[in-house]
Amino acid sequence: MTKHDLLIAASTIWVVVTAVLVMFMQAGFAFLEAGLTRMKNAGHIAGKNVLIFGLCSVLYWAVGFGIAFGDGGWFSGTAGFFPSVNELISVGQKPFDFFAEVPGAAGYLFEVVFAGVSLAIVWGAMAERAKLWVYFVFGTYFTITYSIVSHWVWSPHGWLFSLGMQDFAGSTVVHYQGALAGLAGALILGPRIGKFGHDGRANPIPGHNIPFAVLGTLILWFGWFGFNPGSTLGVDLGGFGYFAYVALITNVAAATGAVAGMLIAWLKLGKPDISMMLNGALGALVAITAASGFVAPWAAIVIGAGSGVIAVFGVIFVERIGIDDPIGAVAVHGMSGVWGTLACGLFAAPVLAHNLATGHKGLVYGGGFHQLGIQALGVVAVGIFSFSTSYGCLWVLNRVWGIRVEPTVETQGLDVHEHGMWGYPEFYIPVPGGYGTESHGHMGGLGHAHAAAKPAPVAISKEVTV
Amino acid sequence: MTKHDLLIAASTIWVVVTAVLVMFMQAGFAFLEAGLTRMKNAGHIAGKNVLIFGLCSVLYWAVGFGIAFGDGGWFSGTAGFFPSVNELISVGQKPFDFFAEVPGAAGYLFEVVFAGVSLAIVWGAMAERAKLWVYFVFGTYFTITYSIVSHWVWSPHGWLFSLGMQDFAGSTVVHYQGALAGLAGALILGPRIGKFGHDGRANPIPGHNIPFAVLGTLILWFGWFGFNPGSTLGVDLGGFGYFAYVALITNVAAATGAVAGMLIAWLKLGKPDISMMLNGALGALVAITAASGFVAPWAAIVIGAGSGVIAVFGVIFVERIGIDDPIGAVAVHGMSGVWGTLACGLFAAPVLAHNLATGHKGLVYGGGFHQLGIQALGVVAVGIFSFSTSYGCLWVLNRVWGIRVEPTVETQGLDVHEHGMWGYPEFYIPVPGGYGTESHGHMGGLGHAHAAAKPAPVAISKEVTV
Amino acid sequence: MTKHDLLIAASTIWVVVTAVLVMFMQAGFAFLEAGLTRMKNAGHIAGKNVLIFGLCSVLYWAVGFGIAFGDGGWFSGTAGFFPSVNELISVGQKPFDFFAEVPGAAGYLFEVVFAGVSLAIVWGAMAERAKLWVYFVFGTYFTITYSIVSHWVWSPHGWLFSLGMQDFAGSTVVHYQGALAGLAGALILGPRIGKFGHDGRANPIPGHNIPFAVLGTLILWFGWFGFNPGSTLGVDLGGFGYFAYVALITNVAAATGAVAGMLIAWLKLGKPDISMMLNGALGALVAITAASGFVAPWAAIVIGAGSGVIAVFGVIFVERIGIDDPIGAVAVHGMSGVWGTLACGLFAAPVLAHNLATGHKGLVYGGGFHQLGIQALGVVAVGIFSFSTSYGCLWVLNRVWGIRVEPTVETQGLDVHEHGMWGYPEFYIPVPGGYGTESHGHMGGLGHAHAAAKPAPVAISKEVTV
Amino acid sequence: MRKVETVVIRERIEIVIDAVEEETGHVGVTVIEAVGHGRQRGVTHEYRGRVFESRFLPKALLIFVVDDDRADAVVRAIAAAAVSGNESGDGLVWSTPIENVTHNRTGRREAT
Amino acid sequence: MRKVETVVIRERIEIVIDAVEEETGHVGVTVIEAVGHGRQRGVTHEYRGRVFESRFLPKALLIFVVDDDRADAVVRAIAAAAVSGNESGDGLVWSTPIENVTHNRTGRREAT
Amino acid sequence: MRKVETVVIRERIEIVIDAVEEETGHVGVTVIEAVGHGRQRGVTHEYRGRVFESRFLPKALLIFVVDDDRADAVVRAIAAAAVSGNESGDGLVWSTPIENVTHNRTGRREAT
Ligand SMILES: Nc1ncnc2c1ncn2[C@@H]1O[C@H](COP(=O)(O)OP(=O)(O)O)[C@@H](O)[C@H]1O
Ligand SMILES: Nc1ncnc2c1ncn2[C@@H]1O[C@H](COP(=O)(O)OP(=O)(O)O)[C@@H](O)[C@H]1O
Ligand SMILES: Nc1ncnc2c1ncn2[C@@H]1O[C@H](COP(=O)(O)OP(=O)(O)O)[C@@H](O)[C@H]1O
Questions:
Q1: Which residue among E16, E87, E92 has the greatest number of ligand 2 atoms within 8 angstroms of its CB, and so is best to mutate?
Q2: What are the structural domains of chain A?
Q3: Between chain B and chain C, how many beta carbons pairs sit less than 8 Å apart?
Q4: Half-sphere exposure of C375 (CA within 13 A, CB side)
Q5: What's chain B's average pLDDT?
Q6: Smallest CA–CA distance from E103 into chain D, residue
Q7: What's the half-sphere exposure (Cβ side, CA atoms, 13 Å) at A193?
Q8: C82-129 pLDDT, tens per residue?
Q9: Which residues sit opposite B461 in a β-bridge?
C-alpha cells in the first residue's frame, strides 16, 4: 500500500460520494417540478425523472462518456465508447486518463449524474404538454449534444477549455444548456391551455404542492454540495481539502439567493412569494456553479443576490413575452447560468485562478476584459450550438409526428392518459376501501363494522377485460 | 500516524457513509409503500418503518450482529453478543475480526442497516391488514433468522460462503429472504377486502400517491449506492477505488430496469405504467445486488432488462394466483433476487471473480455450470429455510392470536384504529382552523376576519375525557 | 504528498460529508413541522426553513463563526469576522486554528449547519402564528446569541469547555438553546386560536400529514449520522475510525427512543400514537447528542428509553400548563436536551472520556458527582442566558410592533396571507385545468375532449391588475 | 316533473343507480358527497394525549329528475336497492314536484 | 313531511344541529360542503407575479327531513343558531313540502 | 319564493352566475360540487395490469333562492349561459316553490 494508493482511495471516496449526492438531485427536480405543476400531472412529472435518468445512464455509458471525456480532438472525444471492465477499473489510463486519481468508473459516475441534471432541466420548461415518446427521442439526442459541449469546456482537448474558459462545475455546460433546450421546447410546444387569456394576459397556474417544491429545493441544495465541491475530481485539486472552500462558497451564494429572491419578490410583487424564494436559491446555485472554485465569499454574495434579482424579473419577463415555462427553468438555469459564467470573468480571485490553473483573474482584480471575453465567447458559442441543435431536432419531430399531446389529453391530464393512472388516484376515482367510499371521505367520520363484511364491487367503475 | 491508520480512516469513512446511505433507504421504503397503498393507512405504513428499524437496531446490537458476524461455526456466529465498548472500537480484533480495516462499530452500522432493509421488505407484501403487535413479534424473530442466513453467505465460516457462493451485497441474503417472509405473510393473511371480486377477478386497488412512490424509488436508488459499493467493507477490496466500479454497474442496471419496466408495461398492458417502471428499477437494483461486484457493464444491462421483464410479468402472475402483494415485493425482491443470484453464475467475469477471490467465472465465460450450481444451491437452501421458518412462525401466531386485523379495522383503516389518528387528518375529520372549516375547504375562498375572534368548539367532534 | 496531506484530505472529506448530512436536516425539520401543522400553513412552514437557513448562512460567515470559533476570550471569539479566502483555505492557522486537520472553510460548513438546526428548532414551537418579519429579526439575533454559547462550550477558550463540560455534539448548545428560544416565543405569542377551549381544556389540532412527519424524522435520523459522528472534526479524534462508534451509539439510542415512545404512548394514552413514536426517536437523538462520544451501548439504551418517556409526558405536560407547542419542540429538544447533557455526568465511560480528553467518568462508574455538577452548571448557565436573551428580544419586538399575526390572518392561514398563495392551491382555489374544474375533482371521472378546445377564463377568480 | 332525492351509503351508489336504470328505464343522475348524522356512534380518535370522537358518517346524496309517472317507481327502486343489511345508516328517499325543468344544451323545457 | 334546507357558515354546523335537536327533538341531518357567493369580497392572491382574487366563501348546506308540524320550529331554531355575529355570510334557511318519504332500511313510507 | 337549481359543467359556474346577475339582477348563490352520469362514456384506466373505467363526470349544482317573479327569468338565463357547445353534458335547470325563507343573520322572514 503506497501513499498513492491512499490518494486514489480518498479521491475515489470523494468523487463517488459527491456523484451520489448529485444523483439524488433527480429527486430534487422531480419534486420541484411536480410541486410547481398541477395535480393531474403529478405522477407523470415526478416519474419522468426516473425514466430520463435511466435512459441517460445507459446512453452515457455507451457513448456519452467517450464523447465527453474519452481521448479525442477539440470538438469531441473519439475513444472510450462502450467501455470495458478494464477501462473502467484502471486509474489514469487511456482512454480516460483525464481522471488522474480515480478509476474510469468513478469518472463515469460523476459525469453521468451531471448529464442527468442537464436533461432534467430541459423538461421543466416543457412540462405538462409533451408526449411521452419525445422523452425517449429527444432525451437520447440531447445526451449526445450535451456530451459534445461538455467536451469543449471540460476536456483538456476541448477548444473552450484550451482558451481558458472557467466553468468550474457547469453553469454553462449543465444548466445553461439544459435551459436552452427547454426554451426551444417551450417555444415549439407553445403555452399550456388556459395559460394566456384571449386578451393575451397571463393567467396564474399555481403548482399544486409548495411543500414538494420546498423539498425539491432542499434536496437540490443538498445535492449541490456534490455538484460543485465534487468537481475537484479528487482530494488535492487546488490544495488538499480545498473542496471544502468550494462548498462554503456554494452555501453562501445559495443562502443569499434565497433571501434575495424573497425580498425582491416582496418589494416587486407585494408578497414574499415562496416559489420565488426557491427560484432565488436555485438560481444562485446555478450561477455559483461556474464560479464556486474561483471567487471570494463577498463575490458569492454578490453573485447570489444577482440571481435573486434574475429569478424574479426573469420569470416575469419570460411570461410577458408569451413563453410558458411552468417552473421557471429559462430564468433560473438559463439566465442565471449566463450570469454565473460571466461572473467568473468579473470576480475570479487571482490566488484561486492560479491554484486551479484555469484562466485568469477577473475584471475587479485588475484582470481586464480578457477573462470576461472568453467567458462571453463560451456563452455565445454554446448558446448558438445548443439552442440551434435542440430547436432543430424538436422542430423536425414536431413537424413529422407532433410533440404536443392532444388538447383532450392535456385537459384531462398526462397521468391518466399517458400512464393510465392518476398521481393521486383516491382524489379522482373511487378506489375499493379508499377515500370517497363508505367510512371515508372529507368531513366523514367512520363507518360500520358490517360494511366490511361484504365488499362492494369497484364502486363507480366497471372493470373491462384485459 | 501510520499508513495503516490512514487506511483505517479511509475505510471507516467509506463504510460509515455507505451505511448511512443504506439507513436512508428506510425513508425510501416508507414512501414507496405508503405511495402504493391507500390514504387511510398512510400514517401507519410510513410510520411502521421507523418502528421496525428501531426494533431491529437494538436487537441487532444485542444478538444479531454476533450471530451474523461474530466468530462461530458454519451455521451461526457464537460470539459478540451485547458487544462492549472495546469490542466495538477496536479494529480487526476478535470477535469481529471479519472486519479487518474498520472498527467493529462500523461493521455493526453497515450490517444493521441491511437487516433493516430486509425487514422493511417483509411488510410490503403484508401491507394494510396486519396487526401492530405482529411487527414487534415477527420483527424480532425475523431479525434472528435473517442473521443466521447472513452468516451462511457472508461470514468466512458460513457454509455457503465456504462453497464459494457469490452474493456481493445480498440479493439472496437481504432481498430474497425479505420477500420469502413477506410471501409467507401474504399467504397467511389472505388478500385485502375488496381485492378480489366474487368471481375471483382481481380489482385494482391503486396506491394513493405516485409522487411518493417516485420519491421512495429515488431514495432507494440513492441508498443503493451505499448498499452495493459499500459492501467492499473497505477502500481496497478488489483494488483501491474498485468500489466506484460497483457503483457504475449498479447504476447501469437500475437504469436499464427502469426503462425496460416502462417499455414492457407499455407493450404488455398498453400503458407505460409508472409503478411498473419503478418496480423495474427496483427489481434491477435487487438483481444487481448479488452481481454488482462480478459482472461487466453489458451483463448489468442484461440483468437489468431481465428484471424489467420480471417486474411486469411477476406482479401480474402473483396477482393471478390469488396473492395480494400491494407493492409487488414478491416479484421485485423475491423473483429478481433469485434472478440476480443466478445471474452471477452466468455472467461473473473472470477478472472480477479473481480480484474478489470469491467463486469462479460464470457460464458465458466458459466457467461451466459450476458457479451456477452453487448459486442455485444457495437459492434453494435459503428458500427452504427462510420460507419455512417464517411461515411456521406466522402460522403459529395466526393460530394462537390471529395476525389479521378485524374487517372493521381494515375497512376504516389502520391509521385511526391502530394509532388513533389519520395520516391526513384534515381530509377525514374537522380540525380546528383546518380544511373543511370556515375560511377553508375545496373550491373555497377566504372567510371573515371576525370568525377568528371567537373560535368555535372542535367542530363536528366532541371531546371525551381521557 | 505527505501523510499529513492525506490526513487533511480524509478529515476534510469526513467533515464536509457530515456537514452536508446535517444541512439536509433542514428538509427534515421542514417536513416534520409541516406534517405536524395544518394544511393552510404548509407552504409557509416548509418554506421558512429555506429562508432562515439562508439568513443564518450569510450571517454565520460574517460574524457567527468568528464569535464561536475565532480566537478570543472565555466569553466570545474576537477574530475571524468576514473571513477571507486565505483564512478559509488554510488548515490549522489563526484565527481558526481550533480546526487542526481541516481548512477553515470546512469548519465554517460544519458549524453553520449546526446553527441552522438550532434556529429551525426555535420556530417549531412558534409555528402557525408568528409574523414573517420576525424570522428576519429574531433569526439574526439568535444566530449571534447561539454563537456566543457555542463558544462557551466548544471553543478551547470557552469557560464551560475549560471546566470540562461534556457536550459532544450539542444537546445543550444546539437543541436546548433552540428549545429555550422557542419556549420564549410560545409564551409571548400565546396559543393558537382554537387550541384551548373556553374551559381551558386543550383541543387537539392534529397535523395534516403524518407521512411528511415520518419523512422528516427519517431525514433527521439520517442527518444525525452527520451531526454526532462528524463532531470528531477529523478522522482521528478518539482514535482512527472512532467516529463509527459514535454513529453506533447514536443509532442505538434513536432506535430505543422510537420504540419507547410508541410503547409509552400505547400504555399511557391507549394508542401507539405515531407522532409520539417520532418524538421519542427525535428526543433520543437529542439526548444522545451530548453523550454519543462518551457512553457505552447499554447507556445509549437507557438514555433513549428515558427520552421516549420524556417525549410522551413532556408533550402532555407542556400542553397542560397552557403552552401551545405545535410540534413538541420544548419536550423533544429542551427536556431531552437537558436529559442528555446530565446523562453524560451519569454514564460517561472512563475509557471514552479519557480518549476524548474531555471531562471525567460519570457517576455510575464511580466518578462521583463532579461531572454531573459541571453538566448541571452548564444547563443552568445556558438556560438563564439563552432564555432571558431570547425572551427579552421577543418581548421588545412584541411590545413595539407585535410579533403575532392578526386573528384573520391566523384563521385564514399564513400561506395565503403572508405569501399570497396556498401550500396546496388546488384544494383551496380553482386553478385553470386543475382539480375542481371540468374533467377533474373528487369522485369525478373524465371530461370532454371539446372542453379543452376553448379554455374558460380563470374559473371563480378575477384577475386584478398588478 | 319530479325530483327524487335520496341519501345512501357510498358503497351503494352504483347499486342504486343501476337499480333505477334497470327497473324504471330512467337514465340520468347527479351525485353529491355528503356526511350524515343519525343514531350511530363514531369512532374514538387520539392525538398527542387528547381523545375525541366524530359524529358524522360519509353518505351520498343522489338527485334524479324524473317524469311524474315514474317517480313512484324510482322511489321504490331506490329504497329497495339502498338496503345494505347493516343495522343502521341506509338513509332516506323522498320526492318533490318541480317546475320549469329545462335541458340546458337544447333549451327544451320539459312539461311540468 | 317537509325538507328544511339551510346554508350556514361551517363553524356553525355543530351549533345549528345541536340547537335543532335540543329545541325540537328532531334527530337526523345530512350535511354537504358548499361554497357561496353573497356580498363579501374575497382575499387577494399572488403567484409568480400575477395577482387575482376569489369570490366564494366556504359554507355548508344542511338538510333536515322533518315532520310537517315541526318544520316551523326547526326553521326558527336554525335561523337563531346560525347567527355568528359577523357582518355578513350567515346564510339562509327555507323549507319545502316533500312526498313519498321512505326510510331505506325498513322500507317504511312516512305519511306525507 | 322559489329555489332554482341547476346542474352545470364546472367551467361554466362563473359564466352562469354572471349571467344571472346581469340579466335578472339577482345576487346570491350556493355552489356544490357534484358528479353526474348521463349518456357519455368515461376514460379507460390501467393499474398494474388491470383495466377499468369510470362513468361519472364532474359537475356543479348551483342553488339560487329567488323572488317568485324572477324565477322564470333566472331559469332562462341559466339555460342560455350553461351551453358549452359540447355534444352533451350541459345539464339541467329547474325550480321549486319554497316556504319559510329566513335570512339567518337578520332573522327576517321573506314573503313566501
Ligand atoms: N331526518 C333526516 N333528515 C336528513 N337526513 C337524514 C335524516 N335521517 C337520516 N338522515 C340521513 O340518513 C343517514 C342514515 O341515518 P341513520 O339514522 O343512521 O340510519 P337508520 O335510520 O337506518 O338507522 C344519516 O347519516 C343522514 O345522512
Ligand atoms: N339568494 C341566495 N341563493 C342561494 N344562496 C344564497 C343566497 N343568498 C345567500 N346565499 C348563501 O348564503 C351565504 C351568505 O350570504 P351573504 O350574502 O354573504 O350573507 P348576508 O346576506 O348575511 O350578508 C352565501 O355565501 C350563499 O352561500
Ligand atoms: N334526469 C337527471 N336527473 C339528475 N341529473 C341529471 C339528469 N339528467 C342529467 N343530469 C345531470 O346532467 C349532467 C349532464 O347530463 P348528460 O346526459 O350528460 O347531458 P346531455 O343531456 O346534455 O347529453 C349529468 O352528468 C347529470 O349530472
A1: E92
A2: 3-400 (1.10.3430.10)
A3: 275
A4: 32
A5: 93
A6: D92
A7: 22
A8: 999 999 999 999 999 999 999 999 999 999 999 999 999 999 999 999
A9: D54
Q: Is 90 exceeded by the pLDDT of residue B437?
A: no
Cβ proximity of D61 and D5 under 8 Å:
yes
Indicate which CATH number applies to the domain containing F10: 3.30.70.120
Element (H, E) at C256: helix C243-269
- In angstroms, what separates the C-alpha of B274 from chain C's closest C-alpha? 20
Residue E31: list chain A partners with CB under 8 A: 443
Residue B296, amino acid: A
- As beta bridge partners, residue E66 has E2
Residue E108 domain-assigned?
no
For residue D64, the ligand 3 atom closest to its alpha carbon is 3
Query: Residues A89, A119: contact at Cβ < 8 Å?
Result: no
Helices B132-154 and B177-189 cross at an angle (nearest 10°) of 150
**pTM for this structure?**
0.95
Nearest to A252 by CA among C62, C37, F104: C62
- The answer to whether residue F47 is domain-embedded is yes
Q: Are B89 and B99 in contact (CB under 8 A)?
A: no
Compute the half-sphere exposure of residue C183: CA atoms within 13 Å on the CB side of its CA: 22
pLDDT over 80 at A358, yes or no: yes
Q: Where are the alpha helices (DSSP H) in D1-112?
A: 13-24, 71-81
Give CA–CA dist E92/F1, Å, rounded: 12
Distance CA D74, CA A380 (A): 74
Distance CA E67, CA E97 (A): 10
pLDDT at D55: 74
Q: What share of chain C is helix, strand, coil (3-state, %, to 5)?
A: 65, 5, 30
Amino acid of residue B200: G
Residue range of the domain that includes F59:
2-94
Peptide bond into C95 cis (omega under 30): yes
Residue where the block lists cell 430547436? A391
Q: How many domains is chain E built from?
A: 1
- The set of cell numbers assigned to A4 is 498513492
DSSP readout, A170-218? -IIIIIIHHHHHHHHHHHHH-PPTTSB-TTSPBPP---S-HHHHHHHHH
Q: Cell for A52? A: 430520463
List of residues 6+ apart from B168 with CB closer than 8 A: B228, B231, B246, B289, B290, B291, B292, B293, B294, B344, B356
Asked whether A387 and A180 are in contact (CB, 8 A), the reply is: yes
Q: Which helix (H) or strand (E) holds B192?
A: none
F67 within domain boundaries: yes
Residue type, B91: V
Question: Considering the domain boundaries, does residue F100 fall inside one?
Answer: no
> Cβ–Cβ contacts within 10 Å for residue C197, how many?
15
Question: Which ranges constitute the DSSP H helices of B131-242?
Answer: 132-154, 159-163, 177-189, 210-227
pLDDT greater at residue C199 or residue A83: A83
Q: Is E101 in the pocket of ligand 1 (CB under 6 A)?
A: no
The number of C-alpha atoms within 13 Å of B445 and in the hemisphere containing its C-beta is 26
| Residue-wise pLDDT tens digits, D63-105 | 999 999 999 999 999 999 999 888 888 999 999 999 999 999 9
Contacts of B58 in chain C (CB under 8 A): 252, 255-256, 259, 301
Are the C-beta atoms of residues A416 and C446 closer than 8 Å to each other?
A: yes
